[in-house]
Model the fold of this input.
Amino acid sequence: MSPMPVAPPILLSVERMSKQFTTPRGRVAAVSDVSFVARRGRIVGLVGESGSGKTTVGRTLLRLTEPSGGRAIFEGTDLFGLGDLQMLAYRRQLQIVFQDPYSSLNPRLRVEQIIAEAPETRGARLARSERDDRVADLLSRVGLTREQARRFPHEFSGGQRQRIGIARALAVEPKFIVADEPVSALDVSVQAQIINLIQDLQQQSELTILFISHDLSVVEYLCDDVVVLYLGRVMESGPRAALFSAPRHPYTQALLASAPIPDPTVRRQRTILRGDIPSPLAPPAGCVFRTRCPFAIGACAEAVPQRTEVVAGHEVACIRRDDPEVVRQAEIVSGAARDPAR
Done:
């Protein structure tokens, strides 16, 4: 009997993270009680509809937005407990690739300056020839050439600009990268190139990545683990295979049922969610998804459901997770969503 594979060590552990914003209309709980782990060398997919709090989670982890509560333990250190000067020491290890590759690049700088700027601000001082070679090597890793280093961002296509953003993130040799919907602004064919690039770079450098996306097909292809977010709360989380083959939260089931299947012969039973996402200014009591859930009962309004492990590593925040109706819907959705040719 072959031994069970050993899971990689945890690089980052997020514990009960919350983030609130003050607006003229009141306080908004953008993220509430979010917990998950990112293991070394793995890609964690963070999925959910627009407005679910995905970007807030990524930015708060890197302290680009200050947290309201919780902990983020990175290699034994709580990032949320560090002062500004202490946090600077960790900036090199924690990087981000933004959604819009054009607005995230300084239009007044050449590409060579954009890429070299990151390590130089961290104290690296290289001779001009060494810097040029370093920039050329980074450009080569993302599929660009040394000659393109002298150009400005506006001289590149959207996909090329995103490659520059990735090269900039890699310039300081980070251990953890937040990729905030890095392909959503790109054409489909270019999306595939960037996704494959991220996968190749992750495998070559053993990077740990938080991949934020609303595209479940991309997440299924690229990620090792998945966290499903709705109105700032985690609905379901677990290994990719377990979550896609047996989604036990009605929201995850609805997301999977809405994803297009590239096969006109496949017929899927749709799960139509009623209504719109509630306002974060006044979230529903109890389970925040209950106002749109096809399986909601009275008890769903009484308390916030806690995440419970249904199988190893697969957690669900739903009091009806084991109900035969919910289990049957999981079988329907996952059966139609699988592509037997993969």
